[in-house]
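General statements about sequence and structure are easier to judge against a single worked case. For one protein, we set the task of working out the structure tokens from the amino acid sequence alone. This step matters because it turns folding into a mapping between discrete strings. The amino acid sequence and the backbone structure tokens for this protein are reproduced below.
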Amino acid sequence: MKPIQVNGRSYQAPAQPTVIVCIDGCEQEYVNLAVQAGAAPFFASLLARGTVLTADCVMPSFTNPNNLSIVTGAPPSVHGICGNYFLDTERGEEVLMNDARYLRAPTVLAALADTGAKVAVVTAKDKLRALLGHGLRGICFSAEHADQASLQTHGIADVLARVGLPKPSVYSADLSEFVFAAGVMLMRTERPDLMYLSTTDYVQHKHAPGTPQANAFYALMDRYLGELDALGAVIGITADHGMNAKTDAMGRPQVSFLQDLLDDRLGDGRTRVLLPITDPYVVHHGALGSYATVYVRPGTPVHAVAEVLRGLPHVERVLDRETAAARFELPPDRIGDLVVLAHRLAVLGTSARRHDLSGLTVPLRSHGGLSEQAVPLLFNRPLADVPTRRLRNFDVLSLALNHLSPRT
């Protein structure tokens, strides 16, 4: 089969069943410390027989932009998904970016399926399913709504019975386990040419690397990855973003509520702060992340707003629209006049009254900034050649299909 061309890149057809795994919130220390604890033999084996690299995720370091970059092989400037949430200027309202109408580029998954390849997608949360499955003729369902999967809509039915697990809670490690269990089931029964598995960061939001809970979760994933490996799959593993504590030395959240501060300094109604981390699952993080975008009302000098923001103790960087779009490969029409990044141990909010932190039962851990950009890039095969350029998480498909050596 001839290589396919998608978004300016060439992809060989899978020579063997290939599984791409996006571990949500996988700060590299999670893998390192689980291996050191003897809890992850599959991960440990990759250093000797596979490939262990580090890559950068796209900015902002959130779920939707990065999953879509991975499956399109391109940054947000190409595929258009620049957050979990954005201001739809055509509709004049803030909306979730989980509708396929916001996607501006085809996926490698759909393109391969169009050539006759058997493709399957299993994602933890349903918010990603429509985007990942856009244009896909194959299997595509979420663990969150596995009980609703139908042959007509999702390419598969009776998922709970076939996987052999009950429907998981969206706020649990069970959601990710269901993704892996479904992946193993599909590899045994359907043997897809290409499969994409995307987990949830429930555990990473609650537990730091090396803790018993984190190591147990990585041991669970390790076991399923070992099963996929034993079934002969080529496996590529990366993450959508890392994760960091966002607290002071006493474990208290370090938050700058930008809308409150700007209203106080400049007057009400001069700016509109939007948090692209926002999604339906706010118990994880209270909709607090290390990246925000600010829309400035006509008549208010953008540079004056920027100066106020740069003077805040938790703010690391303030960029205007053009600079942010160029530096982070973002669609300029879908971000505000300013992009604001927080320091590694801090997050950004809108107004204090709009963030409910009552669901946080442990010190706040979140993501979104430059400090969560470094992620693992792992394969269970050696690379025939390692690119010398900067590696990105969205290189994982190209490397898995084009650059890996055959198993010996």
Notes: The first strand starts at residue 4 and ends at 6. The radius of gyration is 21 Å. Residues 384 and 403 are 6 Å apart (CA to CA).
